[in-house]
Amino acid sequence: MKSSLPEKKWAGLRQRLGDWYRSARRNLPWRRTTDPYAITVSEFMLQQTQVVTVIPYYERWLKQFPTWDALAGAKEGAVIKAWEGLGYYRRARSLQALAKTVVEQGGELPRSEEGLLALPGIGPYTAAAVGSIALGLPLAVLDGNVMRVLTRVLAMNDDIARAPTRAKLQRIANAFLDKDDPSTHNQAVMELGATVCLPRNPMCLICPLKSGCIGKTRAEEFPVKSRTATEKRIETVAVLRHGSRYYCEQVPAGKPWHGLWRFPDFDPARMQKGEPIAKIRYSITKYAVIMEAVEAKWKRRAPVSSSVRYLTPVEMQELAFAAPHRKLIKFL
DNA sequence: AAGCCGGGGAC
DNA sequence: GTCCCAGGCTT
Q: Is the CB of A96 under 7 A from strand C?
C-alpha cells in the first residue's frame, strides 16, 4: 500500500485529469455561475445528494431565493417547503442561518478557510468546495468521490470510516491539488468519481488516470469502509379522515423530519384500526422501515394542539411533508 | 469516536 | 427487494 506518490507522478496525473475534465465535464447549472451565493446553495444541496436529484431543486431555489438577502428574509416554512423531498432538512435551516449571518456581516463570505468553517452548516468539505470554487482559495476537497478516486489510485486499504484515514487522505488530496486552479481541479476529481471512477463497475479503460492508478485491476476492492448494520423496522401510521380533511401532525424538534408534516403513528389505545391503505418502504439512517398505512377512527375525541390539524388537500399540497408521507397522500 | 439525520439510484 | 452512498452536528 502506498501512502502517497512523488510530486512528479502527481503532476502527470494532475495534467491528465485537467485535460480530461475540460473535454468531459457535464454542463451543470452551478457551473454557469460565479455567484458565491449560488455556488454555496449548490454545495449544500450536493452534500449527500446526487447531481440528478439536486438540479430541479437548485433551479427552483435560485428563482425563489435569488440572493443571500432573499433567503435571509424568507419564512422558515417556505424554506423547508422548497427543500421538501431533498432530505437532511437541517441543511436547509443551516443554509438560511448562514444567509442571515452573511447579511449581518456585510453580504459577503469570509475569504479564509477558518472563517468559512466558523459558519453554520459549513464543515471541512463545504469550506473547501465553496472556498475553491467561489473564492479561488487553494483548498482541496475531500468527499466520497475524492476518497474513492484516491484510495484506488494508491490501492489504499485503510478504512475510510476512521478519522485517521480521513486525515491521511486529506494530506494526499492536498498534495494532488492544482494550486494554480483549485476550482477546476476539485471539480475534476469529483467529476471523475461521479462519472468514471464509479462505486460499482468503474470504467477504468477510459479513465484519464489509468496509467498511474495502482488499484485499477481491482478497483472495486476500494475504498475499504466499515459500516454499521441496518435494522428492519415495521411501523403503522393512521389515516384519520374527517370529510375531505386528514388528521396530520407537525413533527416536534428532536425527532426525524422535525418541522415537517406527517400522518400520526397508529395508537391502539386511542384509535380503532380499519382497512389497510398502502405499504411504503423507506430507509432512514440505519433503519429499513416498512410503513403500513391503515384507515383509523378515534375511540374518543381527537386531541387538539397547535401542531396537529385536519388538513385539506390544498393545505397538504402547500405544507412540507416527509417523503414517505408525501407518497402516502397519493393513495388517498 | 460514535450516533443521528433522508432519500434515491444501481443492480 | 437489497444494497450502496456519506457531510455536518451532537453527544
A: no
Which residue, among A198, A140, A128, has the nearest Cα to A169 in the 3D structure? A140
Could you report the per-residue pLDDT of A298-327, keeping only the tens digit for each? 999 887 788 899 999 999 999 999 999 999
Average pLDDT over residues A252-267: 92
Using an 8 Å Cβ cutoff, are A113 and A141 in contact?
A: no
Average pLDDT, chain A: 93
DSSP assignment string, A129-172: HHHHHHH--------HHHHHHHHHHTT--SBTTSHHHHHHHHHH
For residue A121, the number of C-alpha atoms closer than 13 Å in the C-beta half-sphere is 23
Is any atom of nucleic acid chain B found less than 7 Å from the CB of residue A330? no
Active site (catalytic) residues of A = 43
Domains of chain A in start order, with CATH, are 7-221 (1.10.340.30), 231-329 (3.90.79.10)
Q: Report the nucleotide nearest the CA of residue A259, measured to C1'.
A: B5
